[in-house]
Amino acid sequence: MARSSARTLAALLAELGITHLVGLPDNTSAPLFSALSEKGESAEGTDGPGVRLVIVTREGEGIALAAGLWLGGASPAVIIQNTGLLESGDGLRGTASRMGAPLLMLITCRGYGKARSMGIDPAAGFLDRDLLVRPDLDSVAHMTEQTLRAWGIPFLRWSDPGDLEPVRRSLALAVAEERPVAVLMDLVLS
Amino acid sequence: MLTKEQLLLPLLRHRTHEVVITCMSVTRPWGRLSSHELDFASADSAMGHTADLALGVALAQPRRKVICLNGDGSMLMTLGTLVTAVEARATNLILFVLENGTYEITGNQPIPGAGRVDFPGIARAAGFSRIHALSSPEDLEAALPGILSGVGPVFASVRMEPGAEGPISRSEREESRYLKTSLAHCSREFRGALARLPAPA
Q1: What angle do CA A135, A138, A144 make, to 5 degrees?
Q2: CB contact under 8 A, A100 and B84
Q3: How far are the Cα atoms of A42, A48, A54, B67, B102 from residue B89, in angstroms, in the given order?
Q4: Residues of B with Cβ-Cβ distance to A94 under 8 angstroms
Q5: Does B89 touch chain A (CB under 8 A)?
Q6: B185 has a pLDDT exceeding 90
Q7: How far is A77 from chain B (nearest CA, A)?
Q8: pTM > 0.90
Q9: Which ipTM did the prediction report?
Q10: Which of A6, A5, A9 is nearest to A171 (CA)?
Q11: HEC states along A20-66?
């Protein structure tokens, strides 16, 4: 039986040397949390200690906790929804970014599918009032990439669960440039 | 109530291999007393996140005790961290909350619930089982050896006298070693020290 995309991602994180995955689940990331929990906090199919899952109560808390993990010599990654990314602004700015921590941030993309289904690119456009109040769109989708740019966080979009290259490249960039880098998970994990 | 010196001098005497992470109004006073390589100032704002940062270090360094000197205003910002620390089984985390009832470095405005919020009670409700409520130098002297030993996480609230520390900066003008360079530079130095200094057996 083919391995699920969540288990493949869990195995990749372990292969990349990620020691802890810190975050909060949403509907997109839930399969990854399940994959990591099933194996007693270890990623399937890997040698070594695996990836420890640390579930937090708020996203900014998670970013700062991950920064502390890095400060302590571990290699954490973060997984949060784009709504939580907005919540975590000062935690990210004042810890991981200011510390120069090579933090891989997996950001699930609420609202992207809805925008695309209406022929709207979430990355484009001016955030005028009409866009922000439209009930048929999710405003967070239209703020995500503009916010990351404003905060100086490089990012890659990841839309094909079968192609893990954006995750590898993002971590490599984070390490090379000693800064947090985001992967925008515009996809559905199985 | 304790002055900062009455808290920090005994802590300095008892401290051996532990990490000490400071924030806000205790940052300078600790930095004047200690220049240990495992001191870390959580100072570049991100107010409220010092306990999160310390929890992360504790989880990364399970064989080493991590002491966090947090403020009461800062603690109120991230009460959820108390739950996370218990859930994550951070048995090496020692979390002090210095209760002066004010936002000291902005001029001692009262924090919400000053004198009324029961921090030890909140910690207990979050699942901490080792809790200390200290209100005098004698309390501290008696409790400190126990606080620094055994299995945590440990929560210790300390009733503090009002102080008058001003805003924290990072610059050569600062007296404390750990405030003289950038947060990025200090982070790399600290990681290097952790890698170099053996953790207690």
Answers
A1: 150
A2: no
A3: 17, 21, 10, 15, 30
A4: 44-47, 49
A5: no
A6: yes
A7: 12
A8: yes
A9: 0.97
A10: A9
A11: EEEECCCCCCHHHHHHHHHCCCCCCCCCCCCCEEEECCCHHHHHHHH
